[in-house]
Write a structure and sequence with these properties.
Blueprint lengths: L2 H13 L1 H19 L1 H20 L6 H8 L2
Helix pairs in contact: 1-2, 2-3
Length: 72
């Protein structure tokens, strides 16, 4: 932790809009790659599909119970 160096770098970024615009664009791209609606929906779908597979595949489940769980 070099507070003086951090302060100098922050001042440099604040005073140079071309520098912080790049940081903003990179931050936005990272956010969209991790938290955008399509990415979140795909992650939730994958988790739900895996959970459904493990629930249906449990040994000892009656065939009727398995069939009922797969109906929409």
């Amino acid at each position: 932790g070099d507070a003086v160096a951090l302060g100098a770098k922050l001042q440099e970024i604040i005073l140079a809009p071309e520098a912080w615009r790049g940081f903003v664009a990179a931050g936005r791209a990272r956010y969209e790659a991790i938290f955008s609606e399509p990415v979140a929906a795909a992650a939730i779908t994958a988790i739900a599909a895996e959970k459904l597979k493990t629930t249906i595949a449990r040994p000892g489940r009656a065939p009727a119970a398995r069939a009922a769980e797969t109906r929409p």
